Amino acid sequence: MSSEFLDEEVEVEEEDENEAKHKQLLREDDEDSEEEEGENLDTYEKDDFIVSDEEIEEDNIPPLLPGEVQGDTSTKRKTHPGKKKKKFKRLKRGGESLSREVSDLLERGQEIVNAGASSASKEKYDRSMDEMEDEDVNRDDMRDFIVREGRFVDEDIFDDDEEELGQDIYMERDDEEKKITLKELFGPDILKEKFLTEEDERIKQEDAPERILLRQGIRKTDEHELYNEAVWIYSKAFMEEVEQNIRAYRHLIANTTTDEFAEIKKLFVETIIKVLNFILKYRYDIPYISQYKKEDFEDILYKDEFGNDRDLWRIFEWDEKWCILQSKKKKLKDMFIDNYKLNIDSYYLALLDEFDSVDDVNDLQLYFTFIYRDSFDSQVNIDIKKPTKRDLYTIAKRDGLGDLSKLFGISPKEYADNLNFGYVHHEQRDCDEEPNKAAERLLGRSKTFNTVNNILKGAIHILANQIVHEPTIRQRVRTQFQRSSKIKMKLTTKGRATEDVTLHEFTHYNPNDKSSPGEYTYGIFEIDPVRFVQALKYETLGLLKIKIYLEDAHYDELFDYTNFYFSNKTNPVASKWNEQRKKVFDEAKVLFNKTIPHYMKNYLKSKGCDKLCEMCERSLTSKLMEGPYGHSKEEPFDYEEFITDENPRATKYRILSCIPGGEERERTTWVMLDENGEVAATKVWPIGHPLETKNTSEEDKKILLQMRADLVNLIRTHRPAVIAIATCGGLIFKKIKEYFDKDPYENFKGDLRVPYEIVPDDIARIYENSTRAKTEFPNENVVTRRAISVGRRLRDPLTEIAGLFNNEELLCVKFHPLQDMIPKDQLVRGLEKSLVRVVNRVGVEFNRVVSYPSLQNTLRFVSGLGPRKADLLLQKIRKSDEGFVMERDDISNIYFADQKNVATNCVGFLIIRKPPQRPYNEEETFNIINATRVHPLSYPLAKKMAEDGLDVNNLPIENIYEIVKNSHPLDELDLDAYADELEKLNYGRTHTTLKDIKEELKYPFKDPRNDFKSINGNVSLIFEYVTGETDETLKSYSIVLANVVTVLERIAFCKLDNGLFGVVTVDNINEQKRYKGIDLRDFLKEGEYKYFVIVEVVKDEFKVRLSRRVEDFIRADPNWNQSPVRYESEIPEAYQQSFQQQQQQQQVRKRRFRRTISHPAFKDCDYAEAKDLLKNKADGELIIRSSSKGFDHLAITVKYANDLYINYDVEERDKADANSLGRTLVVNGKKFSDLDEVIHYCVDNLMDFTHMLIESSGKFENKSRDEIKEILREEKRKNPNRIPYRVGMSTSKAAKFYIYYLPGRQTVKEKIVTVTPDGYEFNKRTFQDTVKLFNAFKRSCQEHSTSRNTQQSGGKWDV
Predict the structure, then answer these.
(1) Which alpha helices (DSSP H) does 985-1030 contain, by range?
(2) Where are the alpha helices (DSSP H) in 908-1067?
(3) Measured in Å, how far apart are the chain's first and last C-alpha atoms?
(4) 996 three-class SS
(5) Would you tell me how many other CB atoms lie within 10 Å of the CB of residue 703?
(6) Which helix (H) or strand (E) holds 919?
(7) Is the CB of residue 41 less than 8 Å from the CB of residue 92?
């Protein structure tokens, strides 16, 4: 970044700050000002009871802004944040007319940047300006607003401000020649989302793979650096695994070698250097290296079904880590040596070059900033007055105790040398004077260290800190922690009360054993990193406490101070100094135990997250490798079908997709999809399923008959190959499944009998509310979109799942229960890696992707491409005359003619077949080799192989199809002999390449995905998908609360909170064995809620059998009252309350409707999980989540302060359907049009008012209630004639503050202030700045005192 650019940034920031300061003068609260205008406050102002609006404490003057002159006090107080936002909102409304042009402008892309906006855009812009002028505030009203309350605000200032605002935001009307660019029209977020920034344009045009351009560390390297990096990567990423599996590599080295580890290391380092050259020098993407350069490493690196992909990605990622390490070293050296000219010991500069981890370099940086901070501070911001340091180390150094610390003998650096060398390299230097006498000479120098004992403690503190910050010692301690530390886990009171077996397993806690301690200590290697991450999650929930420590024995062994630091002399003076030296290490232990455990938590969490990320990658890979419907690896190659291209490869079926209704007024919806996943027809049933019952009315029977006829006609017309039934709808799903299983009406005869497949709807639930769905089908409801996604998933899971990667919607899929603990960027990169891996193995049928936008989701993951370059390629082809590609060379020579490297990376993974819109013509066949994995660079080898197989010479490349039609001659070729001959001619190793070419000519681009596997027969899996219940969440002999729906004499039907129906029979209602004469209606009433025991889960019928027998209750819960109980009222009250609380918690948790809202703050979680996610976030951070109140509500959870959270209920109105976001959102009776407006009102305003009260009032104390009271009493003693007051925050209730004041001598009184999005609520009034709030507070106290006819004993108020 150039210095000129930085200077511009600084100037802009200064202008923005001055402008913001300038605008603060213009905003007042109209309502409060009008109310106070007529009040006579002179009586109170005489004795300073009311603080003037212009009054400001000298101590509370804010720091000077850039360019501000000292003494300028024009800014009196912070303004109401709502007013600040309100003016912005008015401007925002004026710009809404421009949003209509967004789609057109984005399609034209860079053309608009170069050519400017169209005349239509300018006309719409002018209309928006007219509308804004009509809405603007009348100048007379504004003048009245400015002068109210006697505030002296120059009207010219406001005029200048408004004029400046217009210059900054809007173009002048008479400026007809001014061009509008994308940057002027849209915010940076939109440009970034659509890849239209200048950086995106650079990436599009640069000739290198996009994934390489987006990572750090693209640079030119020499052989020496590459060797050093390769050795480093081997030691960090491979060495441990290789040495543990040495037998697997012995075949690669000579039997005569004496050091097999060194030989294998040499092979790995050479291989890593080759891979690094491919990445850095030749700019090859990982899929390209894996597919076409495998001969250079396939015997060395790990190999699986994806080749050497895993280790190649590992080298790619560790190369980036190497670059980060080198960059950090360089920045550290530049900062402390080149910039600040610090005289740093060459020993530490050598350490900087030697250290090979970021942790070690961080230790060195910590050492520099600690030891050299006085020199550092003297050169940084030298003209700015800085607060005086008050830490003990600084005070001790300032007071001269550093001289005493030198009398302890060798320095910390010399002691570190002794430890590192393993022998006494520096002899201890003994002082002739006893420690106490040496300390006595410093008496009187310091107020803090005013005794001999304190002086010695100060010197010990200096040495302990220096030892703790010594880089090599810190490195040794950290390593010892990684090898020998202990992890102690202890349940909290809340954790003991939680019925979580997994939690209790961490501490071996038995809830039924009162003597169980609820704590356990692990060795560092006894707990798996993934389990540790789970324990950390419990800790964030307040259920578990984790302590990591190193035992004293390990410290003593590590420090070995008796040999390397103590004096070996035996005289009394030396012994006394040794006693003091021992105290140095005792304090060093304490300091290490304060810092290293935090590092260890992050270290173990990082290792656990790495493993979790790999698990998520594997989970996604398994989903992506699911075969499309009808796919079989054993299916022989059909040349005629392949060449005519009547259907897309692998996904050649028409699919009829069904969404069973039943969820929140959803109707059963049918969508017909063609071979390309395009919608051909839709049908909605007015009744959920077509089966008749004995209670079906004649009118409904006619409707059902028509429904069945419509379905038959749909099948007859479009001839689907399969019906995809989504796993939703509960009992409706069951009925539709029965309809196709039994066909009671004999509707599906002959070729109309179509098989069905049950398809999970988890991906479709995310898609239905995604940006992609709204773009593709803006006029369809979410149920139709869900049906489309279900059908497309059955047709091609890879394409459908890949489409969720946009806007990170794929993160809504649960790949692992702990995936929320993985850093978001790490998880996104891991999932992208999985998509890149599978997409390039499967290939992309390019001409079909160009023709059908819904299939373009996979193109961005092709080798060398990315979202930017894929879009660039598609744009170029669409603009061409043909609109398709017939040869791979066209990509290299035409469309990517200026990006040969990118073309080389991608063409081998693009399947070029006949364009789908062109009919088959025998005379115009496509070159079949372009539809294989054979890279154009290897076409000569393929041609030679075909010639040898066909026994012809000079075979044209376009005639290679002849060997594909009859590939048997290829099996007779001796490829190894040919490869040996090529190697002798210096063409390199080609054994594997020739074998790959042979396989491609036998079966072009064979789909490697697994065979399609139906789940129709997996009852448990279907039950889990439909109900969301597993064997753990819903099991036999568990107690549930159910709503009694229907009661008959011998049977009753109930509905559980998860939507399942339960059946209660007369034999399960009473413990008696004689049931004759018992009527269930005497025990159960329709509409009431009762507790039941689940005695059986009947998964295939989607129901449970329930019981009310006491013996079943006792079996379900041994704590159930042992006396015979038949009725709810006889349950012990204490147990009833506790059980109800548990059931209510479960109800809230289960009632939460799983939704996906297209908003960056949305998370699919409940309140407890939201608190967990927000715990370590900054105040004011928020999460939007689904609500337990139903489909028409959302919840916003805001972190207000430590352990204080606020929940807002957002009611949705004008919903298109159950799952979509309402067009109108209501919070606290106020209506909003989108979630950003809600956030601005609920969160931004709330936090702005809070910060104003804390920062600008000058009266806030971040202390406990008792401490604040003591402060007031102390101030009262100093000045009895004043009434001191302070503001404190409630530690138990969010947004609650207390104003403490002391009118008398001892009794401190308090009043409550509630911060709301509208301001400060006090005495049933709302105030929008702190001055008016405190005036009202003082006035209320005065009125209270007057009403009691008493006099204030304290005198005047503090200001």
Answers:
(1) 991-1002, 1019-1027
(2) 939-950, 961-965, 975-984, 991-1002, 1019-1027
(3) 49
(4) helix
(5) 15
(6) none
(7) no
DSSP structure class, residue 1260 = B
Query: Cβ neighbours of residue 1167 under 8 Å, at least 6 residues apart?
Result: 1148, 1185, 1195, 1197, 1207
DSSP 8-state symbol, 1353: S
Neighbours of 735 (CB within 10 A): 18
Encoded tokens for 327? 């960059």
Q: How far apart are CA 1121 and CA 1133, in angstroms?
A: 10
Pairing of strands 1193-1201, 1182-1186: antiparallel
Structure tokens at 32: 């409060």
Q: How many of the other CB atoms lie within 10 Å of CB of 498? A: 18
Q: Contact at 8 Å (CB) between 1011 and 633? A: yes
**CA 291 remoteness from chain centre:** 32
SS3 content of the chain, % helix, strand, coil (to 5): 55, 10, 35
From CA 1149, how far away is CA 527, in angstroms rounded?
30
Among candidate residues 1333, 1336, 1332, 1328, the one with its CA nearest the CA of residue 84:
1328
Position 487 pLDDT exceeds 90: yes
* Confidence check: pLDDT of 145 > 80: no
Least Cα distance to 1169 among 529, 538, 495 occurs for 538
Q: Tell me which residue has tokens 């009947």.
A: 1098
Contact assessment for residue 728 and residue 761, using Cβ atoms and an 8 Å cutoff = yes
Report the C-alpha gap between 611 and 1183 in whole angstroms.
27
Q: Which of 534, 255, 233, 506 is nearest to 357 (CA)?
A: 233
Confidence check: pLDDT of 70 > 80: no
What is the side-by-side strand order in the sheet with 1204-1213? 1182-1186, 1193-1201, 1204-1213, 1224-1227, 1230-1232
- Please tell me the distance from the alpha carbon of residue 573 to that of residue 571, in angstroms, as a whole number: 6
CB of 864 closer than 8 Å to CB of 906? yes
**More confident position, 1249 or 176:** 1249
Per-residue pLDDT at 1118 exceeds 60: yes
**Which of 830, 885, 826 lies closest to 859, judged by CA?**
885
What does the block give as tokens for 555?
Answer: 């410290």
Pairing status of strand 1089-1098 against strand 1103-1107: antiparallel
Q: Does residue 671 contact residue 657 with C-beta atoms inside 8 Å?
A: yes
Rounded Cα distance between 995 and 974, Å, is 10
Closest by alpha carbon to 212, among 332, 129, 323? 323
Report whether 1181 contacts 1195 (CB < 8 A).
no
Buried b vs exposed e over 134-146: b needs ≥16 C-beta within 10 Å? eeeeeeeeeeebb
Per-residue pLDDT at 607: 93
Cα–Cα distance, 485 to 532 (Å, whole number): 14
In a 3-state reduction of DSSP, which class is residue 1098? Answer: strand
Residue pair 1220/782 in contact by the 8 Å Cβ criterion: yes
φ and ψ of 1226, to 5 deg: -120, 125
Distance between CA atoms of residues 328 and 809, nearest Å: 33
Q: Which residue has the higher pLDDT, 392 or 188?
A: 392
Spatial separation of the C-alpha atoms in residues 1089 and 411, rounded to whole Å: 76
Question: With contact defined as beta carbons under 8 Å apart, do 268 and 234 qualify?
Answer: yes
Structure tokens at 417: 């040398």
Q: Average pLDDT for residues 714-732, to the nearest whole number?
A: 90
| DSSP secondary structure, 655-695, as one string | EEEEE---STT---EEEEE-TTS-EEEEEE-SSS-----TT
Residue 101 and residue 185 in contact, taking contact as beta carbons nearer than 8 Å: yes
Q: What is the pLDDT of residues 979-1027, one digit of tens each?
A: 888 888 887 888 888 999 998 888 888 888 999 999 988 898 988 888 8
Contacts of 664 by beta carbon, 8 Å cutoff, 6+ apart: 1190, 1191, 1218
Q: Residue type at 762?
A: D
- Residue 905 burial by CB count (10 A; 0-12/13-18/19+): exposed, middle or buried? buried
**What is the DSSP code (8-state) at residue 1285?**
E
